[in-house]
């Protein structure tokens, strides 16, 4: 193909261009022509098409996501908010923490290992780009039915990819989720979270300020992999007729990224960059246009200087390539020698590809010919915005009116079999087959990891300051009521931080949905965002950033609405955290919170093919009082253990507690046919030394939280209302599911 | 006492090893793979990770790093040298220890709290333990299965050069459940599990790993 230049575009305004094949709508193409006052060159068309894709431009979600800003709480804790690569939160003692979740769903279905691996790689670079040292990762994952043939293809590959990349970067994997549901069979969800830490003064932003400053590309060479990768893949649904999309999946090399991290941190430590941006979705198109529009706007780039893995790549392909492990920095000329020296030390390929100008246009040349001449803001930020039609789907009222009919355990035999079935069901079974493929020890600061309620890492070895993170989604509830579902997921994630005694500080999210072109899906999305924004406002937690993944849909089958909510908390002394379980006999167990007949959307209902009923209504005031209670109890060291109740209710939580240190419990509880399986939100089991009872009761009274004694610890059995479940039998049920399914 | 901790590109557990060495009362000194001298250290640790991305074979490229030339000379002269995980792989590639580490028999990366039995406390790195003592420290690797020919195995067994064995189920298919070995002189030790991740119960499953680092301190003071 002959080179298309700005001059040719002016001379030949009517050339037919493949805008539709690149995913642009006719009106979007017309808008580009209007911006430029001419037809775009093929390189400009390539840039606009990837940057205006759903994945990069958030064109369908923007109008809703605005609420996170409009309803934001005023907080001093937020140092950098939405819009940058990741939000930054003040955690005290001069430390700042940055965290974010992103999806890599579509690539992971096509090529599970590389899709998941590069998902980890991408989010880690986002965190690094803020100036932070990445300190941990988490990965909420969702798959089709555990026994489906395709799950046996997808799951092992994704797990190996998450581990293969994260382990090689030296990042502890401190938690996540593994959930199965039929709706994910053609659209597994791979969400990856990374958290990083820095000093306040080290925060870096994506901006190219200062005429004469140099644009420096460093890291891996650019190849033909992932051309239009996420941006194209994640912006349409899968169907069976299209061409194979495998070449659109990026291929990662974690070793290159590890070296890139250490090299970048050394560069940051010497304060050698003015601005920095990683190359992720939309590659150089994104990095150059975002850096330029973050500054004064002017930038010149000589694209032919970009080091290539494949010398035959065209300028359009170079602009669209999503080759991994690349960074773009803005460097003052006086610092460039030192910058190059550090890259040399780490054997990192580095090239000056351009400079910041005092103009307002991003100009890109190819061997001297001008091939791109655009106002960078129009590429990076002024993409189309859609207020897509939305309508409450007809299923909602229908399923809400359904009565949930499930077996209710009441006899000793029924109680035992219910507990064993819940312990063994894939959604609740022991996940060590998965988590044992992840390194949780590297860096030596991991305080909690799976199967604890939250992941916790120490960030200062002298003061023992730490952070805790939990991610949660309950798609069953979101299906029944997306507004409440989002609030409930927020409450659960915050509670999972608080059981250890950490104080929730900030929220990130990864919103996974079907096609935004379906008004019903769009309604689910809008309701979820509204619920999350209202919830965050009520709980006083800022949203620091997030990610939207649409088009998780195969044919007419959309995934369940799956807003994954991540909450970050701080703990002043990790040594004083409340553990998830007890390791000795003679403790008393109390249930905090109110239990109602909340079977709709429960795991027990799902196991019996029941998808109907009404989701619980979140009581966030009560959730906040419970969190206060848990934090106060940790501070005064009342609890020996505290564990959240969520999927699987009391049965699942007791199972996890007794198996953790192989210490049994004797439980007596009223209304067992509800109490054992209900998933009422806002509940926690605590274990205390009997001598602490007065303190506990006083705390519960002060916070107005229901409290009831449910039993004592000890023995080799879990005994519930006289039903005796030997720990060995319970352990076998809980642990054999995954090895049996996945070898 | 100064203990050098080597960082190759792709090394991950260097800061952990330095922390453990410091915790045991020694001074940790960073050594860079391109360094031509050992900065006067009294002992060296090759930490875990994926040096050079495990390209070609684990440890195959690191073995040729400039710093290794000096380390090999010093070890042949009796300097205590500990290779943990990837470091053990480097020691085998450098022929300071016999055998090789191959892919785990179940073909997965495996991270677990592993019980070991100490079987030789006469080395520079194991004197703080008693023979037969059981310890629990993290095991985390994809290629940790120790393999060698029958003659070498017989020699290792006969000369008491196996310093630790896995207890219970063999986690990775290592011959004779070998977790770690030493050279004839007892100054060079290779160990697949990670003692540096078990120096306190806050961040590790136990504090059982600290003994490796206090052992070398004793050896150096002697």
From TrEMBL, chain A:
GO molecular function, one term: phosphoribosylformylglycinamidine synthase activity
Domain PurM-like C-terminal span(s) in chain numbering: 211-366, 584-716
Pfam families the UniProt entry points to: AIRS, AIRS_C, FGAR-AT_linker
Biological process according to GO: 'de novo' IMP biosynthetic process
Keywords: ATP-binding, Cytoplasm, Ligase, Magnesium, Metal-binding, Nucleotide-binding, Purine biosynthesis
Keyword flag Transport: no
Alphabetized InterPro entries for the sequence: PRibForGlyAmidine_synth_PurL (IPR010074), PurL_linker (IPR041609), PurM-like_C_dom (IPR010918), PurM-like_C_sf (IPR036676), PurM-like_N (IPR016188), PurM-like_N_sf (IPR036921)
Domain Phosphoribosylformylglycinamidine synthase linker: 20-59
Domain PurM-like N-terminal: 83-198, 452-571
UniProt xrefs under NCBIfam families: FGAM_synth_II, PRK01213.1
PANTHER family with a match to the protein in the record: PHOSPHORIBOSYLFORMYLGLYCINAMIDINE SYNTHASE SUBUNIT PURL
Listed name of the protein: Unannotated protein
Protein species of origin: freshwater metagenome
From TrEMBL, chain B:
InterPro entries named in the record: Class_I_gatase-like, PRibForGlyAmidine_synth_PurQ
Any one biological process term the GO annotation gives: 'de novo' IMP biosynthetic process
Cited CDD domains: GATase1_FGAR_AT
PROSITE patterns: GATASE_TYPE_1 (PS51273)
Keywords: ATP-binding, Cytoplasm, Glutamine amidotransferase, Hydrolase, Ligase, Nucleotide-binding, Purine biosynthesis
Pfam families reported for this sequence: GATase_5
Single annotated GO MF: hydrolase activity
NCBIfam families documented for this protein: FGAM_synth_I (TIGR01737), PRK03619.1 (NF002957)
Protein name (database record): Unannotated protein
Protein source organism: freshwater metagenome
């Amino acid at each position: 193909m002959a080179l298309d230049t700005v001059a040719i575009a002016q001379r030949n305004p009517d050339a037919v261009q493949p805008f539709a094949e690149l995913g642009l709508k006719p009106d979007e193409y017309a808008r580009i022509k209007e911006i430029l006052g001419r037809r775009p060159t093929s390189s400009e068309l390539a840039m606009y098409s990837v940057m205006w894709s759903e994945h990069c431009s958030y064109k369908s979600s923007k109008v809703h996501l605005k609420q996170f800003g409009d309803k934001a709480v005023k907080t001093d804790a937020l140092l950098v908010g939405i819009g940058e690569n990741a939000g930054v939160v003040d955690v005290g003692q001069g430390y700042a923490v940055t965290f974010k979740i992103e999806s890599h769903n579509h690539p992971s279905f096509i090529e599970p290992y590389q899709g998941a691996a590069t998902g980890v790689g991408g989010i880690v670079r986002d965190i690094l780009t803020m100036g932070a040292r990445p300190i941990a990762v988490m990965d909420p994952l969702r798959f089709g039915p555990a026994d489906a043939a395709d799950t046996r293809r997808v799951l092992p590959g994704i797990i190996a990819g998450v581990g293969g990349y994260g382990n090689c970067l030296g990042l502890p994997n401190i938690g996540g989720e593994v959930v199965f549901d039929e709706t994910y069979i053609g659209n597994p969800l791979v969400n990856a979270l990374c958290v990083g830490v820095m000093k306040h003064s080290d925060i870096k932003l994506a901006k190219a300020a200062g005429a004469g400053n140099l644009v420096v590309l460093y890291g891996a060479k650019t190849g033909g992999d992932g051309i239009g990768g996420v941006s194209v893949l994640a912006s349409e649904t899968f169907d069976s007729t299209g061409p194979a999309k495998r070449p659109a999946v990026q291929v990662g090399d974690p070793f290159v990224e590890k070296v890139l991290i250490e090299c970048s941190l050394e560069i940051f430590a010497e304060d050698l960059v003015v601005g920095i941006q990683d190359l992720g979705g939309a590659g150089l198109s994104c990095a150059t246009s975002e850096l330029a529009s973050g500054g004064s706007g002017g930038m010149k780039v000589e694209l032919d200087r970009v080091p290539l893995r494949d010398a035959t790549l065209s300028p359009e392909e170079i602009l669209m390539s999503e080759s991994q492990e690349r960074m773009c920095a803005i460097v003052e000329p006086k610092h460039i020698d030192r910058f190059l020296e550090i890259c040399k030390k780490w054997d990192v390929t580095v090239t000056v590809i351009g400079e910041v100008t005092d103009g307002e246009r991003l100009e890109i040349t190819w061997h001297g010919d001008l091939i791109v001449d655009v106002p960078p803001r129009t590429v990076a930020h002024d993409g189309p915005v859609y207020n897509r039609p939305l309508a409450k789907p007809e299923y909602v009222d229908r399923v809400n009116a359904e009565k949930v009919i499930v077996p209710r355990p009441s006899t000793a035999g029924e109680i035992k079999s219910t507990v064993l079935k819940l312990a063994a069901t894939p959604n609740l079974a022991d996940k060590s087959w998965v988590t044992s493929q992840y390194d949780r020890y590297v860096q030596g600061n991991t305080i909690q990891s799976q199967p604890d309620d939250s992941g916790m890492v120490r960030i200062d070895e002298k003061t023992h300051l730490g952070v805790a993170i939990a991610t949660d989604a309950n798609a069953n509830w979101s299906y029944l009521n997306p507004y409440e579902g989002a609030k409930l997921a927020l409450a659960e994630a915050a509670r999972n931080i608080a059981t250890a005694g950490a104080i929730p500080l900030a929220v990130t999210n990864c919103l996974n949905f079907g096609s935004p072109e379906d008004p019903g899906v769009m309604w689910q999305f809008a309701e979820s965002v509204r619920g999350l924004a209202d919830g965050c406002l009520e709980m006083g937690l800022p949203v620091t950033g997030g990610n939207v993944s649409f088009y998780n849909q195969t044919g007419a089958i959309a995934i369940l609405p799956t807003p994954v909510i991540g909450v970050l908390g701080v703990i002043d002394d990790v040594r004083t955290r409340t553990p998830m379980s007890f390791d000795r006999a003679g403790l008393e167990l109390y249930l905090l919170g109110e239990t109602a007949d909340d079977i709709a959307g429960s795991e027990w209902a799902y196991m019996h093919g029941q998808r109907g009923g009404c989701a619980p209504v979140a009581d966030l005031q009560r959730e906040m009082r419970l969190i206060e209670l848990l934090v106060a109890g940790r501070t005064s060291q009342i609890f020996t253990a505290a564990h959240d109740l969520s999927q699987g209710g009391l049965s699942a939580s007791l199972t996890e507690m007794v198996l953790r240190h192989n210490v049994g419990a004797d439980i007596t509880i009223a209304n067992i046919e509800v109490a054992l399986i209900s998933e009422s939100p806002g509940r926690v089991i605590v274990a205390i030394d009997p001598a602490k009872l007065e303190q506990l009761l006083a705390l519960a009274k002060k916070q107005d939280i229901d409290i009831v004694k449910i039993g004592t610890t000890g023995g080799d059995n879990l005994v519930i209302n006289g039903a005796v479940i030997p720990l060995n039998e319970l352990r076998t049920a809980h642990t054999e599911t995954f090895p049996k399914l996945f070898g | 006492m100064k203990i050098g901790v080597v960082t190759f590109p792709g090394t991950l557990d260097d800061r952990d090893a330095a922390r453990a060495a410091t915790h045991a009362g020694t001074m940790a000194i960073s050594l860079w793979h391109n360094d031509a001298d050992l900065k006067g250290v009294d002992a060296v640790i090759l930490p875990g990770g994926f040096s050079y991305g495990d390209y070609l074979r684990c440890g195959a490229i690191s073995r040729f790093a400039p710093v290794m030339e000096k380390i090999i000379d010093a070890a042949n002269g009796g300097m205590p040298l500990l290779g943990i995980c990837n470091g053990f792989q480097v020691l085998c590639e450098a022929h300071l220890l016999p055998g090789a580490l191959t892919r785990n028999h179940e073909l997965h990366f495996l991270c677990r709290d592993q019980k070991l039995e100490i079987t030789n406390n006469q080395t520079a790195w194991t004197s703080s333990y008693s023979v037969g003592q059981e310890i629990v420290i993290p095991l985390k690797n994809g290629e940790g299965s120790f393999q060698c020919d029958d003659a070498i195995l017989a020699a290792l067994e006969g000369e008491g050069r196996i310093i630790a064995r896995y207890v219970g189920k063999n986690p990775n298919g290592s011959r004779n459940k070998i977790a770690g070995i030493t050279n004839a002189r007892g100054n060079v030790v290779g160990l697949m599990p990670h003692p540096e991740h078990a120096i306190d119960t806050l961040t590790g499953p136990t504090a059982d790993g600290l003994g490796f680092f206090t052992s070398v301190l004793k050896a150096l003071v002697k």
